[in-house]
Amino acid sequence: MTNQPVDPADTRAIEDVLNRVAYILDTHEYDRLGEVFSPGISFDNPGRLTASGLDEVIAAFTAITTPAVSHHITNVVVDAVDDDTAECHSKALALRAGGQVTAAIYRDTVTRTDAGWRISARRISPLG
To answer: Are the C-beta atoms of residues 4 and 80 closer than 8 Å to each other?
Structure first.
């Protein structure tokens, strides 16, 4: 991470995008993922879901037969790469059916677009 400061308004907008992913996934409104992911999203959750491009990501989420019940994003750190790109690290907790909780680290690249900030790359590293 670069530890470069980000304008507070941009930090808030980026955090909002990261949080919205959780709400969209939890309501299974996968057709809304374009509100948070860029069209060229690179998504890598090894062993669970790897996809390139928004359409492929939507199809992959739609195909999951036992999605998490609830996603929780915490400990968000946002560092500027330049005026229109930032790198984010956050922790995620997911409640699964049956009560199991899984944890992961999210490493996101976010990019400013005409529609606002969008995640252009997400790499997930499971914990535990």
So the answer is: yes
